[in-house]
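hey
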């Protein structure tokens, strides 16, 4: 009798533990800001779309609407323009993408007169090199007035540049800093719209991300959200769907026919994002911010381990994420800092 009672008690305890752990796994964590740029600095920016800091250096803020890159002192006391608006080399016009290297140099991808251009600048904002990509821009994934794919996805990969170019037949394209294509890899996903090339390409638009622990992630921006993982040599490792109760209504409302817009001499499908931005932390965990105000975190095996909302003055829908060398998370809009 006592044995049966003990067994029943143990079973009840185990069931309670499973239930508690299940609820914990589904819980939305609130991650609150621990700081950021002071109001008199943050108020200078019209639309900050990049907020990064190399080790021991100043902060850099990419202000898309002002066509400007700012440098902010490490003590956050003052800001100055290091790259300003202009069409000529050494200036930027219609900028889309931005990234900073650990040595403080940075890249800006812009599109003066519709031509996709890449420029690399030293820490003081002096142009070091640049090139223009051939051909016409690919169909875009757009959030409001923001183009999220193509050159907007540009990122440093060591001494190379990584860009999403699914129109080439591969997800990743690596360029030298002089503009030479070095390699392409990554298989396009099945979309069900292969007969409509522009829509198929747009639904394969995404963010190519370097994993500091080795390899690469590719996060698809439009359509059904998912990501893929590749090894350092470009070998496909795994694919995961991005799912959660927060996304159920959004996924149920995904269109089967997509609206179009006219660009020059052709109709281009208008694809809205289900993912806004993503980044990889020093431990190789993938952080994915959705078009809804939620961020999912995945471990190195592709399993979801956290569901977050980022809050400062209010709930934030991130437009960029960046992890500093000391583990802080820098977020736009608002230029806030978090301790993840």
């Amino acid at each position: 009798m006592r044995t049966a009672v003990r067994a029943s008690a143990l079973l009840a305890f185990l069931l309670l533990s499973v239930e508690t752990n299940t609820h914990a796994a589904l819980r939305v964590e609130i991650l609150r800001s621990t700081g950021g740029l002071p109001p008199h600095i943050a108020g200078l920016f019209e639309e900050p779309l990049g907020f990064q800091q190399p080790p021991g250096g100043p902060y850099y803020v990419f202000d898309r609407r002002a066509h400007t890159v700012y440098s902010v002192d490490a003590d956050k006391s003052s800001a100055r323009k290091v790259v300003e608006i202009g069409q000529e080399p050494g200036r930027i016009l219609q900028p889309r993408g931005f990234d900073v290297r650990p040595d403080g140099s940075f890249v800006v991808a812009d599109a003066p007169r519709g031509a996709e251009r890449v420029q690399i600048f030293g820490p003081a904002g002096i142009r070091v090199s640049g090139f223009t990509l051939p051909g016409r821009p690919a169909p875009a994934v757009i959030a409001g007035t923001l183009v999220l794919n193509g050159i907007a996805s540009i990122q440093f990969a060591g001494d190379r540049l990584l860009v999403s170019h699914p129109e080439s037949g591969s997800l990743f394209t690596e360029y030298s800093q002089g503009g030479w294509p070095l390699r392409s890899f990554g298989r396009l996903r099945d979309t069900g719209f292969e007969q409509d090339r522009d829509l198929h390409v747009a639904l394969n638009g995404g963010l190519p991300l370097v994993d500091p622990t080795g390899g690469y992630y590719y996060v698809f921006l439009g359509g059904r959200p998912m990501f893929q993982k590749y090894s350092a040599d470009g070998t496909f490792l795994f694919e995961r769907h991005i799912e959660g109760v927060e996304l159920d209504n959004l996924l149920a409302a995904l269109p089967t026919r997509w609206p179009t817009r006219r660009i020059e001499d052709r109709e281009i499908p208008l694809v809205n994002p289900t993912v806004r931005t993503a980044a990889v932390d020093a431990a190789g965990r993938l952080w994915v911010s959705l078009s809804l105000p939620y961020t999912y975190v995945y471990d190195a095996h592709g399993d979801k381990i956290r569901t977050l909302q980022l809050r400062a003055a209010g709930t934030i829908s991130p437009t960029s994420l960046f992890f500093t060398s000391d583990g802080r998370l820098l977020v736009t809009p608002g230029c806030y800092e978090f301790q993840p």
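The longest helix spans residues 2-26. The chain has one domain: 21-338.
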